[in-house]
Amino acid sequence: MSKRRVFRILKWFFGIVFGLVLLITALLYIYKDDICNLVINEMNKHLSSKVEVAEVDLSFWGSFPNLSVDFNEVFIQDTYAGSTEMDTLLYSDRIRFKLNPMDIWSENYIVKSIEVSPGVLKLKVNDAGFNNFDVLKEKSDSLESEGFDLKMEMVEFEDFRFSYINHSTDQEYRTQINEMVIEGAFHESSFVATATSDLQIISARSGNINMVSNQPATLDIGIEVDKIIDLILIPSSTIYIANLPFDFNGEVRDSSFFFHLAGQDISIEDAANNLAMKEADNVKKFSGSGEFLFDLTINGSEDTIQPVSVLCEFGVDNVSLQEPNTGITLKKVSLDGMYTNEGGPSKERLELNDISFTTTGGPFRGNLLLTQFANPLFTGDADGSLNLAVVHSLFNIPNVQALNGTIDVHSDFKVQGVEGEDGRLSYHIEKCEGTMQMNQARFQLVDDMRVFDNINGLVYLRSNEAGIKDVSLKIGESDFLVNGVFKNVVDYFSGHGNLSANVSVTSNKIKLENLGTDTKEEKIQRERAYILPNNIDGTVYLDVKTLSYDKHTYEALKGNMSISGRTLHFPRVSLSNGGADVHGSITIEERSPELFHISSQLVSKNIRFAEMFMEWNNFTQDVITSNNISGVAQANLTFEAPFDLRTGIIANAIEAKLALQIDNGRLKDVSMFNTIVESLKTSGMKAFIGSDNITALGEELTDLKFDQLKNTLIIRNGIITLPSMTIKSSALDIEVSATHTFENQIDYKFAFYLRDLKQDEVSEFGMIVDDGLGLNIFMRMTGDFADPDIEWDKESSRQNRQEYNAQEKKDLKSMMKSEFGLFRNDTSVKAFVQTNVPTEELIIQFDPVNSIDTIIEVKTPEKDTKIRRKLRQWEEEDKDEEVEFEFDDD
What we know:
The chain is of the alpha+beta class. The chain has a 41-stranded mixed β-sheet that branches. A two-stranded antiparallel sheet has the order 40-41.
């Protein structure tokens, strides 16, 4: 055949094809409205609910060789009265009806298949039993269609969400259909169809029992349909849920349905790894031997107010499990479980019978019955040893980062949950008896820096009371030994009442930094929250050998503490800090989150300055250090101040009064004294006082000693005020008054007699007594404490002269009244009394010595306390009575 002939044939072929394409396209354009309107009218004949369609399109080439009618953005609203466009029954981006083009040419419109993607179908039944999906009209002869028929052979869903929620029966079923294809001769009165699907079961819940949650499922089943007797039969086939095989069969009749699901040789290893109700990243991979038994039956009827009846039986027998990473092993695991809601909500029950297993801690057995799900009633018993690491690996307890050790449990309980007016569930313990022995337990919460380690001891349970006997634990470097009795335990943990506590705590060492849930830096970053509880009342006896906080150490801390309403009160407390024994009372009140108000009355008789300065790092100054000061002080401190947990004491808000007595004081090699002496040498005072006297003063100040000093310091608004006082030292007697701010800004005033620099106290004629007629020197030191300015105190000098002149006038009047009888009618003029030896009297507002004697010393409590007697009584009861466990079927 010649090339020209081949070319001619191809030209005619493609010309005919192109012509057919143009003809079909033209026909589609011409008949598009007729075909689309026909399909829409046919839909309206069968649907009673309003259907909204954004656009209807006719397509051939996109679904070749079929012709398709595409409904875009289809919306069907709920049928409930008063529903709005926000109440969705059905929505799909596209619903496609496929037809045969040749049938259309003969005016027979036969739908062969339907495609839905993506979309959502929400079936709901309200509390009254009315559904939202009654959208089909009743069948009647008037609805018979001419030229239109549904002879579907396939229905396809892709990316389709389905949910059925029945509020009247409290049931919920939700799935995400990735892909589903149902094929069969749907138009026949009897046919066999096949269904294949890949989906995700989001939730399958009946009442409070969530049977399946967020698990993948695949199915490939056959369906036998008989329209004559209204029967859909699903023969036995295999489906996969959570990658586990199950035998599935069922039937759907006109007024009822039935489904049965049973496990097919599911190994306990696969069940443990695939049926765990937790995030995939947290699933522990278990290996083991034995089978998981599962059998589920579902029955239902067309009555929407009758709940779907569920009976699920499950269990394991003589199973072994091992977690490969840790080697944790459970042996001889057995369990018979059953859940049913047959008979309605009042008969709903979950039974876990004959729970038993063996771990390294020993054997464990127990039973649990859960009924009355609206107000749940828990009845059961437990007896044996629990390995906490096993429990945590199996159940991955929420918010717990680490858990190990063992607990020996012996208990029998019956607990009733009750919903309050606020909707919150509280628990009433009808019966709770038993003990719990903790052995080397370790516990840590997520995002919590604390690790509760080496937990040992015995806990008693007596209905609404709990007792703790010799429970020891460590938190970081801190150790505790706790004994006590707690009352109103149930209401406290349910959030409806206060916990009543009577506890004793002893410790060798407590480091307060160990007790916080986070670090100081983390506290600053997070929002403020209350630290002290508002729902714990009671008393705590403390006996702590060493307590440390922020580089400071407190020893021999003893005292009773009461707690109530976010307030800690220590009526009598004793401790030692920096070598000083301190007694008194302290109150700590948390007035807002992490902001405290501290008030105290503290007394000490043996403050040793050298040790105290060393303990407190010389109070963050280097003018007078522990190497420069010595002596013993007695003090009585009344103190109030706010405290911020993040920043510490708010210094400018301190209100305090310190009555102080110092004995055998000594200041040696104080650099500030050298500064004063050098200032005198370089100022105008040198000519007046004399260089020799200044040099002598400097030598005396190098090692300054004084027998006793008394005064009352006042702290307010960030300023320390030192009232005027006389210091009788080895160098000279000096009058001092001062103010000193927390920013080390000072205003010190000094006054001394000039003759004190020039003469000895003893002469050849005996003791020299000052007659008060010498010249007073007034000096003032201001500015920064580390680099002060020293000058004449002219104001104090002038005031002193005025006071001296006023006193001289008063003495003159007194003498004239006494000697000559003048001013007899003036009662303000007193008789003159000759004083042989001039003395000074110091009057202070508060005498610490006398006040110290009124403080009641803390006495160590007797060993046989009420707490120990109560715990001993419970211990004797347990020895005399052997607990028998009975499973309550109520």
